[in-house]
């Protein structure tokens, strides 16, 4: 990231990996009741970040995204099982695309430095 102040958290993978929010905040952000989120977790649709016995449920960026997408599909008339399956397929597709982008970015980055022997940019 450059020092220009143009910070975009959606493009900062380190930031997104560190983003972990309590169930109450997730409910506030998404509009999905905590009871529904707990039910989805019991069914294995979303996963909370495990921080020890009795700790408050906390969710990472990907699970918050899943919650939003599932709720949108439910609002459109999908059943919970159909919405969960559709979102899981979308997430797999997104993961594949981002993996390819990350690999391409690494290849470009490595080739840039492999051909740069004079030390200047």
Automatic annotation (TrEMBL):
CDD domains: HTH_GlnR-like. GO terms for molecular function: DNA binding; DNA-binding transcription factor activity. Residues 23-89 form the HTH merR-type domain. The keyword Ubl conjugation does not apply. It comes from the Bacteria. InterPro entries: DNA-bd_dom_put_sf (IPR009061), MerR-type_HTH_dom (IPR000551), MerR_fam (IPR047057). The lineage of its organism: Bacteria, Bacillati, Bacillota, Clostridia, Eubacteriales. It comes from Heliomicrobium undosum. Keywords: DNA-binding, Repressor, Transcription, Transcription regulation. This is MerR family transcriptional regulator.
